Amino acid sequence: MLPTPSAAAGNEAYLEGLDALAHGDFDAARKRFEAAVEENEDDAAPHLALAVAWTFLERFEPALKQVERADRLQPGQKSTRLWKATIVAMAGRLFEDTNYYPAATRDPFETDLREMSHRYGDPAFRATKLHEAVANADAVRAKERAGFPDLARRFVERIRPATPELRPALAARGIGRFQKGEFAAAYPDLLDAVRMDPSDVQALFALAGCRLQLGAPEGARADYTRCLTKDTAWKDAYVGRALAHAALGDAAAAKADVERARALGLDVASAAAEVAKRLPPTPADVPATLADLLRAPERASDFVRAFESKRKRADEAYQEGLRAARASGDLTALGAFLYDQATTTLVEWVEPRAEPTTVRPQDPEAELVAAEQALDAALAMNPDDVRAIAYRAACRMKRYDWERAAHELEGALAKAPEDPLVLELVAQVKDHAAAVQAAAAADLRRVTTWSDYWYVYTRWPASPRAACCSARPGHACAQRTRPWRCASHSASPA
Predict the structure, then answer these.
(1) Stretch(es) of the chain classified as CATH 1.25.40.10
(2) With contact defined as beta carbons under 8 Å apart, do 249 and 309 qualify?
(3) Are strands 357-358 and 347-348 parallel, antiparallel or unpaired?
(4) What letter would DSSP give residue 348?
(5) For residue 64, which of 42, 40, 80 has the smallest C-alpha distance?
(6) Does 57 have pLDDT greater than 80?
């Protein structure tokens, strides 16, 4: 776990210091981290970052003071122990460093850092502890010094996404740079901000614009689609996606998005012209066979664009379905659509031996909440809407609220005893109840064994078919077999 900076102050200076550190400007990073420390003396993160800057400046005494200060502010943090061990080893105090952190771990960055510290500190250790003259000490340190910028960059890449408190500053700076046209500088800030909070649609919209300007239209198209999923009436997002479709060669989809923006009241004359300008020329002789394609490798990109309009994208299908459901004004249909999409996950295997990925960005929990909200609104207007009652019960079942779901389905079944959806959900509730009772019955049949050191005790289950007068309610056998009869009675209706 990394120390986290306070959101109150110092974030701008801290971010600027991280930028300088990532670019290998260690002295500029030190100055900005010192400013961040002055703004918030009780924040552990800038103290640790300042220790890192001092370490790469090969000033180990102030580096050790800063890392110890960070450890006092947030005791026991893994990153402070890692850097304390690194500083101690680089100062030549080998064997002491492993008291704070292992010499190697499964983390490649940690292992590379610790190995560097040992190689760097070895000449000092030999000179002070073994009293050996090391002729090539400067050459050894110079060789390790050449790897400092890469280690600093990797440190920043680890710490930025792992610090949610930086998200507002990253988003604000990224959006500001995007508005100024500084797309390459804005991209990493916006990417980290969106990774920390995927629901920040303003940062997501700016990220899509950066991708489009930096030559990644497929990523821009996906991000614009996510924006439109959040707000199906976002005019500028339709225009941006139209430009992305045009860059990909999908003329039909680009023109459709321009028309949607026009229908929402946006003047799209300049956007339509830009779309037409971005559309690549369609090849007149699209190859009919694989052999034709292999004979024209120089035109492969044109052929890909020619077939782009035939692609089917799950994220756009979801967004368009959501837009149609919202436009219809039927809240029950909207809730049903959201429920069906939340409970259906389509995946694809894009790499050998890799985990499958979803064909669209999906947040089942949030989509179920949205479905339940739409169904609640539908039932507020029409409490007798059987379909809305059934889908809301289905949402409750997905959240394991079986009791409330069963109660609602009883009412729906009384209103519509032949409705197939209601009958299917009632069957699922009964199946769940039967499974619970079957588990309880299985526990009754379990043989239990325990010991008190001297003896081993075994308790055998009572037989439900005991040959005695178990029919009498007060008889011991009747009391013993009653749970079996209850379980059987509960399971039989299902």
Answers:
(1) 11-159
(2) yes
(3) antiparallel
(4) E
(5) 80
(6) yes
Q: How many CA atoms lie within 13 A of 192 on its CB side?
A: 24
Alpha carbon distances (Å) from 340 to 344, 366, 398:
6, 13, 12
What radius of gyration do the chain's Cα atoms show? 33
Biggest distance spanned by C-alpha atoms of the chain: 100
174 — alpha (psi -120 to 50), left (phi > 0) or beta? Answer: alpha
Residue that the structure tokens 């690194």 belong to: 86
Residue found by looking up tokens 């500053």 in the block: 169
Q: Which amino acid is at 348?
A: E
Residue 212: both structure tokens together: 């489009």
Q: In 10 A of CB 382, how many CB atoms?
A: 11
Question: What is the rounded CA–CA span in Å between residue 179 and residue 198?
Answer: 20
Render pLDDT for 342-372 as a digit per residue (tens, 0 to 9).
998 888 777 777 787 787 888 888 899 999 9
Length of the chain: 494
Report CA 281 to chain centroid distance, whole Å: 38
Instruction: Give the phi and the psi of residue 280 in degrees, each rounded to 5.
Output: -75, 155
Share of the chain above pLDDT 70, in %: 85
Helix (H) or strand (E) holding 411: helix 402-415
> Residue written as tokens 């609640």?
376
Task: Express each pLDDT in 234-279 by its tens digit.
Answer: 999 999 999 998 888 888 889 899 999 999 888 888 888 888 888 7
Alpha helices (H) along 106-160: 108-128, 137-145, 148-159
> What global pTM score does this model have?
0.67
Q: Per DSSP, what are the bridge partners of residue 448?
A: 459
Q: Output the DSSP codes for 373-391.
A: HHHHHHHHH-TT-HHHHHH
- Classify domain 11-159 at the CATH topology level: 1.25.40
DSSP 235-302: HHHHHHHHHHHHHHT-HHHHHHHHHHHHHTT---HHHHHHHHHHSPPPPSS--SSHHHHHT-GGGHHH
Pick the closest to residue 237 from 221, 251, 250, 248 (CA basis).
Answer: 221
Residue 205 has pLDDT above 70, yes or no: yes
